[in-house]
UniProtKB/TrEMBL annotation, chain B:
One of its GO terms (cellular component) is PeBoW complex. Transmembrane segments: none annotated. This is Ribosome biogenesis protein BOP1. One of its GO terms (biological process) is maturation of 5.8S rRNA from tricistronic rRNA transcript (SSU-rRNA, 5.8S rRNA, LSU-rRNA). It comes from Electrophorus electricus. Keywords: Nucleus, Repeat, Ribosome biogenesis, rRNA processing, WD repeat.
């Protein structure tokens, strides 16, 4: 019966977790290397359920990893490479210390490096897995590609990031899979749909960064190392699926023509190709030169367990998408020099527009300002001296709003010098009870094909009238009450008497509602403690959201009234 | 300009020239070392030594001889005298003008003579000035003949025999190579790696192996995506999303972690005006940190419909009857009513108040039939539950008086009087802690029959079901005399407990069995009066019991407590509460059971009375109404058809709530409006058929 006495912390959760320091020692790595390894392998800490048990009775703050994860890391060949690198650095330092330049040179020639291919393959066993995780990679690459080529990180990294991001943009243009764009104060958000995956990335505005001091660039660099590898492989695969040549090549037709003199001023020979690619104005070469008419109609088969309605819905969504993809088809844009060229060129090209800019602004412009066939001229300055008659002069927000609305919005609101309507986030999907800004409602009406402008004003007037009427009603009620009270006061003085009472009309509906509410209140009172807690929490959240929505609408109302009053004042003046 | 510059040195030379250069010329022509001549004499050509040393003073500044007649010494040690110079500026000038060789004449400081340079000498100077070789015939670009070349010549350059070491392998080299080989063998030196030629990127997922998806991947929790931006992040948001000045101040004062928005929403008139976001890199970095430092956990989001959480209880309407409507208000007391009690016949109501009066009311008409003044604020009143006795116990201060109100059946009243007056003094008078006295005079007329004076203030009185025994509570933490039981017929008092078990809050007789329930702060003790022992100790899970009620069936007990709980005990089951209800928000003051229906009510300081329908399988709150502060409630449960609840209020009102449908059965609803009620209360109580009765103040 006896058996061995069980000791504490030798089984159960205490043996499943390992603290960071212990893990580091087990792998015999420095903290920086351990951090790097965790980043590359995607190992993250775990929060044990019973912290004290895992911590062997101590309550000190510790980071815990799963022991399984750490064992998994032990087999990683890259750990060996890290050690090799450490040795290399030591040898090199020694050689320099002894001024043995030959040895140092020899060592440098054999600098150990590592590749992350197998890690990518291991972390993302299928291509879709990799695509799902590409959001952060893209944001990081776009950020790094805007870094200055001094300090902070290797020039090669910056160049690679730039190359990969340009390749990605070119792919999106070719696929025409951009869905949403949003100009935020942080940067520009893009959302695209690639192979059924929704991918969102953020691009900073084209300004110099003021580099913060509280940021560890080594961590960022490690992430970038992983992300560039990942993005490179993804790009390769994506280009392959579209039968595009990788690394991308510009379409041969334009090659000779575009070798204008101005280009020599713009870029050196070695850089010209990259620059032209990043200008985003030309299409790419395909491996198999496909005929233009590849647009064979797809057959639609209902998926399993899908009825006709759903199929129809899907078809409609598909049609909508097709229409959106051809949003700017046949339009010819010219970008003035003050607008963000890259972003606009990218967005416009994604939706089938032709786009050009001033020759001196950037390489790759295809036509001049004087071109008569230009339909839209994107301008972002208060006024323009020389205007052509047969084109619209619009502000850049028009382009973005059109993309988000999936339709060509009326240009009047976006003319040069006009106060712009608010730019709404396309990512917000309002649920019931949430606050919906009136601009969004207007947009939804527009999308349905209504033209609500004049009606709305009338409605507003109507509303005012009805409100006044209500006020009157209320005051009537109050009068009656007062009268009754007076009568009662008179009655107090008199002695006992019986008068026929007045039959009070009973609002049955309301009474019923009240009864129901009372019933519910009593039922809530009878709840179990545990359920009550949850219920209270849910109701609190609901109430808060309602309160917030109300607050927003009240704020808006007040602002609208203020602006109306201002307008009236101006008119009177 | 060039030409003038060339000329200048010539002029200078001319200036230094002398008029007597004729004779000088002769000497310089034969002796000058500068002269290139084709003489045979070897030593004459030799310029290695200082050439023509006629003056032996050496290389010294000649100014030193400025003041002497001689200029130095010749080889023989004789003075060399300065030539007689009589040339002045004018001579110089004339010389410059007339002498064609003036430009090639130089003054020799050593000898003090003027020397005229020959053509060859001038040429040499020119060549040296141009950086050329002095010798005209010297060819600096002559073809070089490489003697020691790879081409094997027929004749050796030198006739030296080859060294031995040239055909024996070098030992030193061998040693060196050996060392290198050894180092390579040992892995100390690695040959330079060949450059990688494989492309950097290729189709990594060319063969997607389904076996590659390990358990790890199933366990892996992907990082949540970045939160998508809302309208407030737009560069040109709708105006309501911008923060007002107050909101902005609040935002600035908040801790960065507590802020709801991590940035201040801003509006720019055009895209051109939008600056760079200063925290861009930080935010990306924070995201990186989140990715590798944050513990990930799968959390089940509670996605419940709050309606599902509400228990499915029978509808209160199905549980009727229970009081729902305020119908009667008894008006008369001028201060807080502490206690009420209903006569066993159900016709009368007695109430005791802080205004030192006891009032007797007729229940149905709300008419006050009798008002009796007593000597202090009334703490408790209790109508004798025996139907054959008409006696009310009233406690105020340290006294308890037994009152015969003289209401109702005359026979019963007189029988009661007789019962009390028939008492005969026993032979041996025991010394009792309570004085029994018979009042006289006015008090007797008012109906007071007995006055019991206690040593301490009496808080509660409670009758036994038969009507002979009366229990009084005198709460005192330190004494064993807290509860006394009086026997009215024998005017005897006994103290059942000899030991103090905590401050007694209230007591009650069991309706059917010989039990006596005593509630202290935390426990209810059930004593068997016959066996004189403790039967049960009920643990109410609350801090301080305020009130207690026993079900007429005798199996259930409810306790109200000051910590908002109502504990329901089933005496058959356990000593722990069968159910604890926390319906009230504040301390409970009174609880009551209905005699026939499974209803119980609780009144609380939060101004509500809650009537619950309690069956063993579930408890349903039926009705809740609010009134002002409550002290004591009781059910009116005499007549079967009438379910009502009395709740005395502050300021001397007693509200009566009556079950609605009873009155509907009766066919009419009577609203009795008292002047203190506001019109809204009238409206609340009225129905579609209403008759208003105006009556004067009672």
């Amino acid at each position: 019966m006896g058996g061995l006495q069980k000791k504490k912390y030798e089984s159960g959760s205490a043996t499943n977790y390992i603290s960071r320091n212990k893990a580091r020692k087990k792998l015999s790595l420095s903290l920086a290397d351990f951090r790097r390894l965790c980043i590359l392998k995607g190992i993250y800490p775990h929060e044990p359920k019973h912290k004290k048990k895992v911590n062997k009775g101590s309550t000190a703050q510790r980071t815990f990893y799963l022991l399984k994860d750490i064992r998994f890391l032990m087999h990683e060949p890259i750990v060996g490479k890290f050690r090799e690198y450490k040795i290399f650095v030591r040898k090199l330092r020694k050689a320099y210390g002894k001024a043995e330049w030959g040895t140092a040179e020899k060592l440098r020639g054999n600098k150990p490096g590592y590749k992350l291919d197998h890690i990518i393959k291991e972390r993302y066993p299928t291509f879709i897995d990799a695509l799902r995780d590409v959001d952060d990679a893209l944001s990081m690459c776009f950020l790094f590609s805007t870094f200055p080529r001094t300090g902070k990180c290797h020039v090669q990294t910056i160049e690679l990031c730039r190359r990969l991001s340009v390749e990605w943009m070119n792919y999106i243009i070719t696929l025409r899979s951009l869905r949403k764009v949003f100009l935020s104060i942080k940067g520009i958000y893009y959302q695209a749909e690639v192979l059924g995956q929704i991918i969102t990335w953020l691009v900073p505005y084209q300004f110099a960064h003021d580099h913060p001091t509280d940021v560890d660039y080594r961590v960022m660099a490690t992430f970038t190392e992983l992300y560039t590898t990942l993005l490179g492989f993804i790009n390769f695969r994506l280009y392959q699926t579209l039968n595009l040549v990788y690394p991308p090549k510009l379409d041969g037709k334009g090659e000779e023509e575009s070798r204008a003199e101005s280009e020599e001023d713009y870029a050196m020979d070695s850089e010209r190709y990259m620059e032209k690619l990043s200008a985003l104005s030309a299409s790419l070469v395909r491996v198999v030169s496909t005929a233009e008419a590849e647009e064979a109609e797809l057959d639609h088969f209902p998926a399993e367990g899908e009825d006709g309605e759903k199929l129809a819905e899907r078809l409609k969504a598909r049609q909508d998408q097709d229409r959106q993809e051809k949003l700017f088809e046949g339009l010819k844009f010219f970008l003035n020099r003050e607008v963000p060229r890259e972003s606009l060129a990218f967005v416009l090209r994604c939706f089938g527009a032709q786009v050009s800019w001033d020759k001196s602004l950037c390489i790759g412009s295809t036509y001049d300002v004087t071109d008569e066939t230009i339909t839209h001229h994107v301008v972002d300055r208060p006024s323009l001296e020389k205007q052509y008659i047969n084109r619209y002069y619009v502000q850049p927000q028009w382009v973005y709003d059109c993309v988000n609305a999936r339709m060509l919005l009326p240009v009047e609101d976006y003319f040069v010098g006009v106060t712009l309507p608010p730019h709404l986030s396309p990512f917000v999907e309002e649920k019931e009870g949430d606050y919906v800004p009136p601009e969004k409602l207007k947009l939804l009406a527009l999308q349905k094909g209504e033209r609500p402008e004049q009606e709305e004003e009338e409605e507003e007037e109507d509303n005012d009238d009805s409100e006044e009427e209500e006020d009157e009603d209320q005051s009537d009620d109050e009068d009656e009450l007062k009268g009754m009270e007076e009568k009662q006061a008179l009655g107090k003085a008199s002695s006992v008497k019986v008068t026929p009472g007045e039959a009070k009309p009973v609002n049955r509906q309301r009474a019923e509602q009240e009864a129901k509410a009372e019933e519910k209140r009593l039922a809530v009172m009878m709840m179990k403690k545990r359920d009550k807690y949850l219920y209270d929490k849910i109701m609190f959240g609901k109430k808060r959201s309602v309160r917030e929505a109300n607050k927003m609408s009240a704020k808006r109302k007040a602002l609208d009234e203020a602006s109306k009053a201002n307008k009236k004042k101006k008119l009177k003046k | 300009f060039k030409s003038t510059k060339e000329r200048k040195p010539k002029k200078k030379q001319n200036v230094s020239a002398d008029g007597e250069n004729q004779e000088e010329k002769v000497t310089s022509g034969s002796d000058s070392g500068l002269r290139v001549s084709s003489q045979v004499d070897e030593y004459e050509q030799d310029t290695s030594d200082e050439e023509d040393i006629r003056n032996t003073v050496g290389n010294i500044p000649m100014e030193w001889y400025k003041d002497y007649p001689h200029i130095g010494y010749d080889l023989d040690g004789k003075k060399i005298f300065k030539p007689i110079r009589n040339k002045d500026e004018l001579d110089e000038f004339l010389d410059k003008m007339e002498n064609p060789d003036y430009w090639r004449t130089i003054h020799d400081k050593m000898t003090g003579t003027d020397v005229c340079l020959s053509d060859e000498q001038v040429d040499l100077v020119h060549r040296l000035q141009q950086g050329k070789f002095g010798d005209v015939n010297f060819n600096e670009y002559e073809p070089a003949i490489d003697f020691f070349s790879n081409e094997v010549m027929i004749h050796p350059v030198t006739n030296r025999p080859a060294d031995k070491r040239s055909f024996i392998p070098s030992l030193i080299e061998k040693e060196k190579v050996g060392k290198l080989v050894h180092a390579i063998k040992m892995g100390w030196i690695k040959p330079r790696r060949p450059k990688e030629t494989a492309p950097q990127y290729y189709d990594l997922w060319a063969k997607e192996d389904p076996n590659a998806i390990l358990g790890r991947h199933k366990m892996h929790i992907p990082a949540p995506k970045m939160r998508l931006p809302g309208h407030e992040e737009s560069y040109n948001p709708p105006p309501e999303y911008l923060l007002t000045d107050e909101e902005r101040q609040v935002w600035e004062q908040q801790d960065p972690d507590e802020r709801k928005l991590s940035f201040l929403p801003q509006k720019y008139l055009s895209l051109r005006a939008v600056p760079a976001f200063s925290r861009f890199i930080q935010e990306r970095f924070e995201r990186c940190l989140d990715l590798y430092l944050c513990p990930r956990q799968r959390k089940m989001r509670v996605n419940v419909n709050p309606e599902d959480l509400i228990p499915k209880l029978p509808r209160p309407r199905d549980l009727q009857p229970f009081p729902t409507l305020q119908s009667l208000v008894y008006h008369g007391h001028s201060s807080l009513i502490r206690s009420i009690s209903i006569s066993p016949s159900g016709q009368w109501l007695v109430s005791g108040s802080d205004d030192c009066t006891v009032r007797f009311w007729e229940v149905c008409t709300t008419r006050c039939l009798k008002t009796m003044e007593v000597g202090g604020p009334v703490k408790s009143v209790a109508w004798n539950p025996a139907p054959s006795i008409s006696l009310v116990a009233v406690s105020y201060g340290e006294n308890v008086i037994l009152v015969n109100p003289g209401l109702g059946d005359r026979l019963i009243c007189s029988a009661t009087d007789q019962l009390i007056s028939s008492y005969e003094e026993p032979e041996e008078v025991k010394d009792q802690q309570v004085q029994w006295a018979v009042p006289e005079g006015k008090a007797q007329e008012q109906g007071q029959r007995l006055i019991l004076t206690h040593p301490k203030a009496v808080k509660q009185v409670s009758w036994h079901g038969r009507g002979d025994y009366l229990a009084c509570v005198m709460p005192d933490d330190g004494s064993s005399l807290q509860v006394v039981i009086h026997q009215v017929s024998r005017r005897r008092t006994q103290n059942p407990f000899h030991r103090n078990k905590g401050a007694v809050q209230c007591v009650s007789f069991h309706p059917s069995r010989p039990y006596f329930l005593v509630a202290t702060q935390r426990y209810v003790r059930v004593y068997n009066l016959i066996k004189q022992e403790l039967t049960k100790k009920l643990m109410a899970n609350c801090k301080w019991i305020s009130s207690m009620a026993v079900h007429p069936g005798g199996d259930n007990v409810i306790c109200g407590s000051y910590d908002c709980r109502l504990a329901w005990f089933d005496l058959d089951l356990s000593t722990k509460p069968y159910k604890v209800l926390r319906h009230h928000k504040k301390a409970l003051r009174g609880v009551a059971y209905h005699k026939h229906y499974p209803l119980f009510a609780s009144g609380s300081d939060d101004g509500t009375v809650i009537v619950c329908h309690g069956m063993v399988y579930n408890v349903t709150a039926c009705f809740c109404f609010s009134s002002l502060a409550l002290s004591h409630i009781s059910f009116y449960s005499v007549r079967e058809w009438c379910v009502s609840i009395f709740s005395p209020q502050l300021f001397g009102l007693i509200d009566v709530y009556i079950a609605n449908h009873i009155y509907s059965n009766l066919g009419c609803i009577v609203t009795i409006t008292l002047p203190t009620l506001s019109s809204s209360q009238v409206r609340k109580a009225s129905s579609s058929f209403a008759l208003t009765l105006h009556c004067p103040k009672l």
